[in-house]
Amino acid sequence: MDWKSTLIAAVVAAFSGFTGAELSAGRNTASISAFQPANEGTLAETINQLLERQISLSPAQKSQVAAINSRYTHDRNGLMANLYMTRAQLGGAFSENMTLSGPTKDSIKQMETIVGDLQTQTITHIVELRDVLTPAQRQIYDQKVVEMLMRDEQ
Predict the structure, then answer these.
(1) End-to-end CA gap in the chain
(2) For the chain, which domains are there?
């Protein structure tokens, strides 16, 4: 892959992330069900299903949760765009000589950092959602979240 291909891949990845962030920002945040976080099947989506189906939220709580989800999705999409750009950079660096060169190692380190940031962001999202809940709601939420985090398929 030459530098032009790498540049094109990076621009496409950045544009995709920006577009996703902008689209998610324009969604209806009046209710949780009208808002789908980042990607289907994510831990965030599973937690939002828990909030919709097993915990009765007040209208004010639903509004707060929707705002938290909107912010989370916007930030996550930005990190995902960075991950896609870094993956393109990794491909370009690796294709130069097909070895574990310095630039290849640098791209791998950048990817590790971004993946760590994504994990931290997800846990922060979980805590922010928890802060909206009453003590009684937190008991259910805490038990279910721990179960979700400990499952093999997550």
Answers:
(1) 34
(2) 3-39+52-150 (1.20.120.1490)
**Cβ contact 27:35 at 8 Å:** yes
Rg (CA), the chain: 18
Q: Per residue in 85-96, pLDDT tens?
A: 999 999 999 888
Q: Work out the average pLDDT over 64-86.
A: 96
Q: Determine whether 138 is exposed, middle or buried from the number of CB atoms within 10 Å of its CB (0-12, 13-18, 19+).
A: middle
Q: Taking a C-beta distance cutoff of 8 angstroms, is the pair 117, 76 a contact?
A: no
Structural contact between residues 107 and 54, judged by C-beta atoms closer than 8 angstroms:
no
Could you tell me where the DSSP H helices lie in 54-134? 59-97, 102-132
Q: How far is CA 144 from CA 11, 21, 50, 54, 91, in A?
A: 40, 28, 8, 10, 39
**What is the spatial distance between Cα 55 and Cα 143, in angstroms, rounded to a whole number?**
12
Q: Which two tokens stand for residue 82?
A: 């960075």
